[in-house]
Amino acid sequence: MLQSSKRSDFKIITINPEKQEGIEQIITAFDQQGSVFKNFYKRNTLKTIALYEETVMVKSFKVPGLFKRYIYGSFRKSKARRSYENSVKLAQLGIRVPAPIAYAERIVKGQLYESFYFSKFENKTFTVHDVLLKKVEIDQVKLLQAFTAYTYQLHQKGILHLDLTPGNILVSATDSGFEFSLVDVNRMKFQNRAIPPARAIENLGRLTELPDAVKVILDTYSEVSKTPREILQQRFESSVRCYQGYRKLKAKVKGFFKNKKLHTVTSLN
Predict the structure, then answer these.
(1) If you ran DSSP here, which 8-state letter would residue 171 be given?
(2) pTM, to two decimals
(3) What averages of pLDDT result for each successive group of 10 residues across the chain (269 residues)?
(4) Closest CA to 169 of 192, 147, 152
C-alpha cells in the first residue's frame, strides 16, 4: 500500500509506511549522513545510508536549471518519480531491480528543486562495466552470452532500457550462472508486444565498442532470436555511430558553454 505525506515542502511516496519517519530524517540531513557510493561529476549523488535495520541506496538528483525546473515541476514526471514507478513496474513484470522503497520531491510554485530515490542496497554485486574493464575475474564470453540472452528476453516482453550502459547492469554470480539487475531505470519504454530483433539490437549500441565483445553479442543475439547476423550487425553498427555522434555533440556543446563562462569571468576580472 502506498502512502503519501509531506514534511516541510517535501512530498514523499513510499511502499513502506513504517519507514516514513526514517526516510524523512534522511532527506533532512542527507549531506551529513551515510557513505558516498558514487558522485556523478557534481550531477547526481549516490549514497548508502542506514534506514532502520537495513542499508539503502539513496540517489539525490541534481537541481535542474530554471527551464527544466518548470518542466519537471509542472509537466513531466521527475527522474526520481520515474525511477520509482519504473522499478515497481519492472518488478511486477518479473524483472530484477534493487527493490524500490520511496521517492521524494520538493516542488515550490510549480518548480522542482530537490528530489531523491530510495532503493534497497544490493551488496556483493558488480557491473558489466567492471567485467569489461577486467576489474572482476569472470569469464567475459560467458557473461556477455548470458546478458545478451537476458536482454533478448526483456525485448520479448516489450521492455527497452533506454540507458543500457555497462554501468547500469548489476551482476551477481550464482551456482547456475549469472543474475542481472537493472539500475538507472528512469528512462524506460514499455510495449504490449515483443520488439522485433532488428529494432531491438539497437538497444545494445551503448553497451560496448570492443570488437571481441561485440562479436559475442551479435553471435548470441542472432542465435537466440533466430535472426540473420548480417541484419543485426548493420543495425547495431548504425546505433553505435549514432551514439558516438551524440556523445561528440554533447561534449562540444558542454565545451562551448564552459569556454563561454570562462571567457565571461576573465572579462569581468
Answers:
(1) E
(2) 0.86
(3) 54 93 94 83 86 95 94 96 98 96 96 96 92 92 97 97 95 92 96 95 90 96 97 91 72 60 46
(4) 147
> Which helix (H) or strand (E) covers residue 236, if one does?
helix 229-268
Write out the three cell numbers for 3. Answer: 502512502
C-alpha cell at 246: 551524440
Strand, helix or coil for residue 28 = helix
SS3 230: helix
Q: Is residue 73 within 8 Å of 11, Cβ to Cβ?
A: no
Largest pairwise CA distance in the chain: 64
| Residue 74 CB contacts under 8 Å (≥ 6 apart), including other chains | 110, 111
* φ/ψ (deg, to 5) at 174: -125, 175
Q: How many residues does the chain have?
A: 269
> How far is residue 265 from each of residues 41, 103, 259, measured CA to CA in Å?
22, 38, 10
